[in-house]
């Protein structure tokens, strides 16, 4: 991949990653309710899911050539149901009463849950699979891919996905500080996540 193509590739991934969606709404929630540690764990889960989707899409493009509509539909149903469930859960949470302090960290037992939420929000979204399946043929050769080429393909995905997620986590922290201690933040984010889940099902 040439330098120009690599820059364009990274810009395309950044544009797709920074657009608000279910995962970014989760990042806002993590930042406003839990703070940096939980946000970073969810970001890591999001990165793992993005890499899994990228690898699957690359294998499909190279070996099969197209994605199964049945698989995409099943992912869409499962993803929409999970996202709506998480949105409903947020509506009843009472943890938005006080902004998270700089040194506040969630209990260690909860970190795995934050990792899972970041992973699940991303892995159940079939739009990422279709995005990668459309993106890779534009930048990836059909010839056998070397290890350096794989790094060129997947490192930008990991770095950009993590960075964009943490930007939204930061925005969530700032949102809490600007609006102060309020229970309405949870309802706003919960309602937005429910709408995002419904939108995923309808698109």
From TrEMBL:
<dbReference type="GO" id="GO:0005886">
    <property type="term" value="C:plasma membrane"/>
</dbReference>
<dbReference type="GO" id="GO:0015171">
    <property type="term" value="F:amino acid transmembrane transporter activity"/>
</dbReference>
<feature type="transmembrane region" description="Helical">
    <location>
        <begin position="73"/>
        <end position="93"/>
    </location>
</feature>
<dbReference type="InterPro" id="IPR001123">
    <property type="entry name" value="LeuE-type"/>
</dbReference>
<dbReference type="Pfam" id="PF01810">
    <property type="entry name" value="LysE"/>
</dbReference>
<feature type="transmembrane region" description="Helical">
    <location>
        <begin position="113"/>
        <end position="136"/>
    </location>
</feature>
<feature type="transmembrane region" description="Helical">
    <location>
        <begin position="7"/>
        <end position="28"/>
    </location>
</feature>
<keyword id="KW-0472">Membrane</keyword>
<feature type="transmembrane region" description="Helical">
    <location>
        <begin position="148"/>
        <end position="169"/>
    </location>
</feature>
<keyword id="KW-1133">Transmembrane helix</keyword>
<keyword id="KW-0812">Transmembrane</keyword>
<feature type="transmembrane region" description="Helical">
    <location>
        <begin position="181"/>
        <end position="202"/>
    </location>
</feature>
<protein>
    <submittedName>
        <fullName>Amino acid transporter</fullName>
    </submittedName>
</protein>
<feature type="transmembrane region" description="Helical">
    <location>
        <begin position="34"/>
        <end position="61"/>
    </location>
</feature>
<keyword id="KW-1003">Cell membrane</keyword>
């Amino acid at each position: 991949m040439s330098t120009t193509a690599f820059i364009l590739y990274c810009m395309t991934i950044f544009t797709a990653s920074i657009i608000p969606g279910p995962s970014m709404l989760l990042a806002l929630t993590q930042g406003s309710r839990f703070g940096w540690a939980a946000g970073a764990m969810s970001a890591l889960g999001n990165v793992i899911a993005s890499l899994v989707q990228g690898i699957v899409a690359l294998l499909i493009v190279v070996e099969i050539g197209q994605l199964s509509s049945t698989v995409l539909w099943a992912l869409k149903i499962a993803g929409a149901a999970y996202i709506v469930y998480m949105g409903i859960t947020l509506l009843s949470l009472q943890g938005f009463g006080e902004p998270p302090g700089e040194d506040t960290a969630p209990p260690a037992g909860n970190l795995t849950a934050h990792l899972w939420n970041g992973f699940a929000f991303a892995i159940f979204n079939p739009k990422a699979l279709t995005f990668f399946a459309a993106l890779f043929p534009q930048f990836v050769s059909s010839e056998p891919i070397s290890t350096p080429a794989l790094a060129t393909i997947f490192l930008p995905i990991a770095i950009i996905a993590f960075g964009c997620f943490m930007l939204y986590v930061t925005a969530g922290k700032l949102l809490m500080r600007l609006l102060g201690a309020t229970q309405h933040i949870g309802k706003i984010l919960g309602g937005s996540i429910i709408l995002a889940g419904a939108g995923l099902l309808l698109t």
